[in-house]
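Project standup — Tuesday

K.O.: blocked on the structure for the chain from last sprint. Re-posting the sequence here as requested.
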Amino acid sequence: MIVFHAEASLLQNPPTFFRHGRLVPHPETAERYRVLRAAVEGAGHELRLAGDAGEGPIRAVHTPDYVDFLRTAWDRRGELKNIGEELLATQFPRVGMDTRPVGLQGQLGFYLGDTSTAIRSDTWQAAYGSAQAAVAVADHVAAVGGIAYALCRPPGHHAYAGYGSGFCYLNNAAIAAQHLRNRLGRPVAVLDIDVHHGNGTQGIFYARADVLTLSIHADTSSYFPFYCGYAAETGTGAGAGYNVNVPLPHGSGDDIWLAAIRDGLARIADFGPAALVVSLGLDASAEDPIGALTVTTDGFRQAGALIAGAGHRTALIQEGGYLCEALPRNLTAFLAGMAG
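H.V.: unblocked you, prediction finished:
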């Protein structure tokens, strides 16, 4: 399988973040990219460096002011005193208080949804490179068909059009989906199998009928992202009925997860997309350090086989999946299932 990646994924390497009132090691580090890249190399897949398609595909999904903020925030650090190695949001707007502040500290809270998503000197370069891998895989699938994989890091599915959260800055899956929509001129679908709900992807396409979004994830009533991901969220306006959430009980394993994927693929088949984007989270694993499901390595292999068997031209976009012994095994098993 062809694997698109960007060496900028070695950047944006935060050491810690706040969780449950204390600083803990940050799970979303450059080591994830190294481990996943070594896994695909070891399995004999073909690695290709993504080209530079510019900001156009990014701005087709994200608001201009948000992109400008990400690109310039670190260079504006002189507006604040006593800055260390990162810029961190410490104030956040409340419901109904949505005026965009002028100052950098206020904008950090306006554009970044939580303390896990800080701005560092190389954040923009890393996020930009990750998005370019998503554009490259979309271009390849549009032109050639078949299945290809984008080793995107940092991940993206928690990024909305106008702000980032949950380790995510640019929504790689949404960028790939929109790019495929533009290239093919027909509707596309996004299947998100990360353990966390794809809230940013949902938000970007929630009022649209030309992109079906379907997320299979751990129940969010006591799990990130908490405030959405519920079955009652089905889209609005023209998009009514084109957003599908499948929250699973915590601890669900292969049988429940794979049944949800089968049902999701049936819904996607009814939609009849020109292409499928898969937000591939490996954090549904039983061994993942921040996961809530109990999927096995063989479960990932079966999931790959199910998705490949659906017969869509398919762009795989790496989302979550955090450092543990099972991480590289789960990726190679999923890709092996996709390859038949």
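K.O.: great, moving the ticket to review. The radius of gyration is 18 Å. The chain has one domain: 2-339.
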